[in-house]
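This follows on from our talk about sequence and fold. Can you supply me with one protein entry, sequence and fold together? Could you add the entry underneath, on a fresh line?
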Amino acid sequence: MTARSRAVVAVLVAAALFGTSATTLALLAPDAPGPSVAAMRLLVGAAGLVLVVVAVGGRDDLLRAYRRPTVWIMGAAVAGYQALFFMGASRAGVAVGTLISLAAAPFLAGILGWILREGAPGWTWVASTVIAVSGLALLVSTNLDVEEPVGMLYALGAGACYAVYTVIGVRLAREGIPPSAVLAASFSLGAVVLLPAAVTSTWWFSVEGVVAVLWLGLVATTLAYLLFGMGLRLLQPGHIATLNLFEPVVATILGVLVLGEQLGMAGWAGTALVLVALGLLGLGGTRPSHRAHADEKEEMTR
C-alpha cells in the first residue's frame, strides 16, 4: 500500500469516527443542546490532541504552530464550523443543514486549494464529488425540513469554514509543521473561542453525559483528527473534503442498525452513490500537487 493509499484510508476511518457522533448523542444525551455539545467536544478533543503532541516530543512543533498567524485563522475556522453547523441544523433542519454544509465543503476546499496553489483537484475529483453530493442529496431527501433561509446561510458558512481550515492545515503541514501539531494548535484555539458555550448547560453532569463527552472528544475528535492529519501532507484539500462525505453514510447506517431508523430506497441509493464516488476518488489515481508528490517520496523513503 502506497503512502497516499494509507492517507486515503486514514481519512475514511476518521470520517467513520465522525459519523458516530449523532448516534452517541441519541443514545447517551438526546436532550443536550448543540452549541454546548460542540464546545465540550472541541474542548476535550483539543486537550487530547495537545497531550498526544507533547507526549511524543512535539512541544517545540506545537509552539512553532502557535507562532504562525495562519493557525489562528484556522482555529477561528474550526470554531466557526462547529458553531455554524449546529446553528444551520437547528434553523434549516438537520437534513438540509447537513446536506448544504457537507456538499459545499468539497467544492469550496477544492477551489480554495487551487487558488492557493495546492494543486488542481482534477477531473476525477470533480466527477466523484458530483456523484457523492448527488448521493448525499438522495440520502437526506426523505427528511427535509426547512424553516428559514437564514439556516441555509449558516450551513453554507459551516462548509466555508471547513474548507478554510482544511486548506490552511494542508499548507502548514506541507511547510514542515507536523499535522498533529497543526491540528492541536488550531483546535485548542477554537476551543477557547467556544469555551463560553461549554458552561451554558449541565447535560454532561451525569455518567451518560461524561461517557458521551469522552467518546465525542477523545475518539470522534482526538483520534479521528490524528487520522485526518495523515491526509494533510499527501492529499489535496478538495480530495480530503470529498472523502469526508463518508461521515453521513456511517451516521445513516448506524441510525438504521442501532437506533432502528427507517431508510427508504432513495436513501439506500444515495448511500450506494456516495460509496461509489469515494471508491472512484480513492482508487482513481488522482494526481497530487508537486509538493504533495515530494512529500510522498519522502514518506516512502523513511
In short: Residues 285-302 have pLDDT under 50 and may be disordered. Residues 154 and 209 are 27 Å apart (CA to CA).
